[in-house]
Structures are given as C-alpha cells and as structure tokens.
Model the fold of this input.
Amino acid sequence: MNSITDSAATALQLIISFDAGLLAIVSRSLSVSAAACLIACGLGLVLGAWLGVARFAGRDAVLTLLNTFLAVPSVVVGLLVYLLLSRSGPLGYLGWLFSFKAMVMAQALLVLPVVTALTRQAVEDAERVHGEQLQSIGARPLLRSLLLAWDERYALLTVLIASFGRAVSEVGAVMLVGGNIDGFTRVMTTAIALETSKGDLPLALGLGLILLGVVLLLNVLIALLRRWRERSESVDRGSDAKSRLLVLGA
Done:
C-alpha cells in the first residue's frame, strides 16, 4: 500500500476506535461553534427580522454595510478580535486571548452578519406578501417582524443550520485568537492545518472525514427541512381550498 492508503486506513482506525485525542478536538470544535451560533443567532434573528420590516433614513446604507460584512475574510475578523482582546486593546483586561471564549467571540462575529442578512431577506420577502394585511389590522413593525419570522420559521431553521456549518468549517479567525494550543484551543480545522504541515496525515485525514460528515449531516437536515416546509405548505393550501369549498357549498 502507498502512504496515502496507509494514512487513510490509520485515519479510519482512529475514528472507529474513538481515539481520545481525536474526540477531544471534535468535541471542542463542536462546542465552540454551537456556543458562537447560539449567540449570533440570538442577536441576528432579532436584528434581521426588524430590518426586514423597518423603514428608516439610512436603511440602504445599513444593508450595504451588512452585505459587505458577508464578504469579510475570516482572518480579518480574527485580527479585529485579536486587537480587541490583546493586552493593549480595549478588552484586554478580560484576559480572553488564546482561550475558548476568544474563539467563540470570533466565530459569533463571523456568523452574525450571515444570520442577520438571511433573516432580513426572508422576513422582507414575507412582508411583501403579508405586510399590507398586517398593517391593516394595526400591527406595529415589531409585532409584524415577530409574526413574519414565525411564519418563515422553516426558512429560519435552515439559516441556523447553515450558520453552524459556516462556523464549524472556519479556520482563520480561531487560529489567530485561539492560538491552536493542544488540549485547550485546538479545533478540527486548525488541527487539520497543523497536522498536515507536520506530516501527520492520519490524524488530519481522520478529522477531515469527521468534518465532512458534519457538513454532510447539516446539508441533509437542510434538505429535510425544505421537504417538511413544502409538505406543510401543501397541507395548508389543501386546508384553505377545502374551507373555501365548504363555504361555497353552504
């Protein structure tokens, strides 16, 4: 067998045997991304829903800035967080640099624009369809945003899953602010980069396969949610049609 085949076989063995070092890295990576998404989604869903219905001076500038943040490289976000948390930075007194909290902060800032922008688009599209009806019954912007966000809950669940995928596959920001310290801040993406540079391909391949599996699972969940949404909408349309027939029959 060649070296690639040997490395792949060893990688599979690490996964099958539940290697402690590999599982620790995977667990840490998932924990960081989950915490970051929880924070980013809590803020992004509210802000995005509000932006979807609010109309104010400078809104276009805010949306342009938000869309710009979508294209900001992760290393730039990591640099910003590094400067904030460094000893000479405004948040240096917290002592978070090269820690779990710093990585969560970096990933949350990276994911926040994604959640906000996608939520805003979903709610704004729903506003075009149902906005006038809600305004006719006196619903204020805040109430409209909440009602429309609930109506688009399946789409927003897809946003949450996609944001987790964005976070868990990120490498630049967590590398800068976490330091890739073994046993403390090493996550899947940073470990893959380090182990590959060291020539330890089995561990890198093992982590890569698990990361691919996580991303595949997220995409399967998104596909299932889309089917669930389509079925729910078809059932709702069928119920509405049946109601209209009953009214006409009466």
About this structure: The radius of gyration is 23 Å. The chain has ten helices and no strands.
